[in-house]
Each structure stands twice: as C-alpha cells, then as structure tokens.
Specification:
This protein is an alpha/beta fold. The chain has helices spanning about 10-15, 20-35, 45-50, 55-65, 80-85, 90-105, 115-120, 135-145, 170-175, 180-190, 215-225, 250-265, 280-285, 315-320, 340-345, 350-355, 420-425, 435-440, 465-470, 485-490; strands at about 5, 40, 70, 110, 130, 155-160, 195-200, 200-215, 230-240, 270-275, 290, 300-305, 325, 335-340, 375-380, 395-400, 405-415, 445-465, 480-485, 500. A hairpin with a 6-residue loop joins strand 11 and strand 12. About 35% of the residues are buried.
C-alpha cells in the first residue's frame, strides 16, 4: 500500500501551462489527502530552485512549494548513481538521480513525474514499475482506494463495430499510421474480434486480433518473412493501453487474455508488432516469453509460442516461455494455505464462487466480465519454511473452505526481517496494507515473500477430504508444506491437467 509519494517539482511549476495535468493533479492531491498519503518534494529539487538568479520567479516558485514536506537527500556519489541509473551529464541529471535514489531505498513508495527521460533511466529496472505520470498515478490510487465508487476495468469480448472509432483513444495511432482510419474502418466492416478494458465507460485498453494460417499463401509468406513459427498463428493486430491506464496491471490483464486464448485454442504461436520507442510494452511482453522476430519496416516483430513443447527449459523459465503451461518434471509441489480475505485479493476471478456478496458489481453469468488477474503476484507468509526453489509449483489452498483453488509457479523466494527489505521484495504488486506487512515481522520471526506467476484457477476444486483420502495430505495444512506431486496430478480433474506438460 502507499504511504508516501514523491513529486517531481517540475510538475508543480508547470501546472498553469497544462490544464489537463492540472485537473488530474488536483484530483490526485485530494485522494492522497483523503487517504492519509504524504506528498513530498525532494531537497535537491528545492535547492535547485533556490539557486535561481531571477528573484521574482524564484519567489513565485518557492511559494508554490510551501505546502509540501521536504524529503532529505540521501548522499550517494556520482559514480554510485551512474552505476545504477546511467550517465550524469548535467545538474538536472544529478537531481533526477537523487530522486531515484530515494525511491530505490524505499523512503517513498512511488515517484510521480512527467519527465520521460527520468523515467527512461529505470525503464529496464524493477524500479520503473514505481515511476508514474500524474494520470497513471491517479488511476493507480483510484484502483487502490476507491474500490466502492470507481468502476474497475473489465476485459470484455467485443467486435470492432461495437467500438466508438471517434474516441480520442485512437489519436496517437492516427499519428503513427497514415492509413489507420481506413484500416480501422475495415476492422469495423469485418466485425473483427477484439478484447477491451473499459473504465468509467471509456475505452482504456484494446487488443484487436485475427487468426492467420500457413494454408493461406499470402499469410504464409508474411509469417515466413517475419520469422514467426507455426501453422496456426494468433495475430495481435493492435495492442494499446490508454495513457491513464499505464503503470498498473491492466496491460498485463489484456496480455493474459490473449495468451490464454492462444493456449486454449491450440494456436502454435502468436505475434505482434511494436515500435522501438514503446519500451514499456516491449518490457512487458518479454517477461512472458516473447522473442524478437524479423523487423517489419520500422516496426519490431515479437512472437511467442502458444503450444508447449519439450526443449531445454524447465521451471520458471519454461513457464514464462509457454505460459500458462507448467513443466512439472523434477519440480517440487507445495501447498500454500491462504486466509479468505487475502485469497479474495490474490484471486479475485473466483471470489464470487466463495463470497457472492463481494462480487455484486460483476456478472455471474458471463465469466468474461469478471476482472482478470495480473499474472505476476506476491504472497507473504510467516511459514517456518527456510527455502524454496524457483520453478516450484504452488497449489493455493483457501483455508476456510478447505480446498485447492489456484496454481502458480514460484519465481523467487525471499526471507525478510525488516520493513525496508519487505517493501523491496514485494514492490507495488502486494495485496497487503503496510500494517499487515509489518505485523508479519517480529524480532523472533522473519517473513517469507513468494513472487510467483499465476497459471490458472482450478475448475474443479480439490477438497481437503479428497486429498486426505487419496494420501495427498496427512492433516489440515497450517503452513506452506510439500505435497506428493504424483498423487496430486492423479487426483486433479481432467479439465485442470491441461496446463501441465509432463514430457
């Protein structure tokens, strides 16, 4: 959860010149005030303003900053900062990296800036997930704190003729592609399938897709030229997130939908094109096994295998490459008991099966209207377990209902003894409040942080009595513990075995 937000002072200085940012910034401040979140400016930023030789301008700027608490600078040498954040060529670079140092050591939870060059310094670093624009920070805050009043995004199956093609959502695409309007009109006429995320009745994210096959000579030639393998291929014709929807899990939800579709409908592979400058998108898809193919003009091509196969990869690397498939050979199985309140946060897609009253905003008859989970998740435990290997298979057990519900693959296991280490380990993907996290740490006991990739929710939940009867468990699970993988696989319903690749 968020306690402290660091603001790049350039946002405050430039508010009068950007009415759109001004409105969003005011709303963000109001939300922070409502939920007790402290807004800070950095000592280095203020010191730079105080050096302004234009006394009139300096007085006006400093007056704007009076209401903000100042965050003290953490001393780091130029060499230390360059090693992590890249070359420092100017006083402004020096200030930017001071802000990133404070973010990196966990003194603040997120950094809000409109400076793209500053954000680019951590573009390939986990720290980048905690750098937001004003609009994306506002959206993130709403998702965290305004659940009762803010409409959560839903991944919805539609056809293109159901889209409002005049929506400003498409404006940047019109800039990138000269013939975009004609192409979109063609998609509308053909009623091409799409998945979209809608928030507050506005389009926030969109994938337009089609099936391609080497049985079609034109498509076969293009697939060959682009270096995309397979005979039956899912083409992501368009993948776009609105500016206000970036920085959260929403792009990951759409990507999950497409990868799951490719896997369950027996596509050999899937692919998309992107520009080199779209670093955020490239970073996202590479986390899930997308490989660079042959460029198409100025665009890069990335493809992903949908059909699992035997290759040199095992464990978490195999899971990333072939998500949601799991290669179970030589992997340990663990049962992970989760209390209902945390289970509902970790796996909201199946909350309605246990707590219908928590899902009144969702249609219970159309699964596509239930908000999609992100794939990368974090679970924190006070278990006595001392180590777990990446690639271990996690079976999540909803304690009050005494059944297995969900499957994941462990990416990393971290033992933490203090809040700074805890925050570094969980990042912004934690479903826990800070008071809950701090309550899991004591002088006598450390906490265990499990970063994992979600694979699937079980269609047929395995009950405690079934597992006891089949020798999978010897008693009610109270903590993370090993399971007999062979016995578990034998007990799973056939519909739930599909993600397991056993060659």
């Amino acid at each position: 959860m968020l306690n402290k937000v660091l603001i790049d002072t350039n946002i405050i200085i430039g508010l009068e010149d950007n009415k759109e940012v001004n409105v969003a910034y005011s709303e963000m401040l109001a939300l922070c005030g409502k939920h007790g979140i402290s807004i800070r400016i950095h000592e280095s930023s203020k010191a730079d303003i105080e050096r302004d030789k234009d006394s009139g301008r300096k007085a006006i700027t400093l007056s704007k900053l009076k209401k903000y608490q100042v965050l003290s600078k953490t001393p780091r040498s130029k060499e230390e900062k360059e090693k992590i954040f890249g070359k420092i060529k100017s006083p402004n670079d020096d200030i930017d990296t001071d802000l990133l140092v404070s973010l990196g050591i966990g003194v603040v939870d997120i950094l809000v800036t409109e400076d793209k060059e500053l954000a680019k310094r951590v573009g390939n670093n986990p720290l980048g997930e905690r750098v937001f624009t004003v609009n994306s920070a506002l959206f993130h805050l709403k998702a965290l704190f305004e659940a009762e009043t803010v409409e959560y995004p839903h991944v919805v199956d539609k056809t293109c003729n159901q889209l409002d093609t005049s929506d400003s959502f498409f404006d940047s695409l019109r800039t990138d592609y000269d013939d975009f309007d004609n192409w979109l009109a063609s998609c509308v006429r053909k009623e091409r399938d799409c998945w979209c995320i809608e928030s507050e009745k506005k389009l926030g994210g969109l994938i337009i897709y089609k099936k391609e096959s080497t049985n079609n000579p034109d498509e076969a030639k293009e697939l060959h030229d682009l270096g995309v393998p397979g005979n039956q291929v899912l083409k992501i014709c368009l993948f776009k997130m609105g500016d206000d929807m970036r920085g959260g899990k929403y792009g990951e939800q759409l990507l999950k939908k497409s990868m799951d579709h490719g896997f369950r409908n027996s596509f050999d592979s899937m692919y998309l094109t992107t520009f080199e400058r779209q670093e955020e998108l490239i970073k996202l898809i590479q986390r899930f096994g997308f490989i660079r193919g042959n460029d198409k003009g100025k665009e890069r091509v990335y493809y992903k295998f949908c059909k699992p196969a035997a290759d040199e990869f095992y464990g978490i690397e195999y899971h990333k490459k072939y998500w949601p498939a799991i290669r179970a050979i030589n992997q340990k199985f663990y049962i992970v008991p989760v209390k209902p309140n945390f289970h509902d946060r970790l796996f909201p897609e199946i909350t309605h099966k246990f707590s219908p009253q928590l899902s009144l905003n969702f249609s219970l008859n159309r699964e596509s209207l239930i908000p999609g989970n992100a794939i990368r998740k974090v679970y924190v435990s006070q278990s006595n377990i001392k180590e777990m290997n990446p690639g271990s298979i996690l079976l999540f057990y909803r304690s009050s209902d005494s059944c297995l519900t969900s499957v994941g693959v462990l990416e990393s296991f971290t033992v933490v003894n203090d809040m700074q280490a805890m925050k570094a380990a969980v990042g912004i993907r934690s479903v826990y409040r800070d008071d809950e996290l701090s309550g899991m740490i004591s002088e006598a006991k450390s906490a265990k942080v499990l970063n994992f990739y979600y694979s699937q929710n079980l269609e047929e939940h395995l009950s405690f009595s079934e597992m006891l009867g089949k020798g999978i468990l010897k008693g009610a699970p109270q903590s993370i513990s090993r399971l007999d993988g062979g016995k578990l696989m034998a007990a799973l319903h056939q519909s739930d075995k599909g993600v397991f690749f056993e060659k």
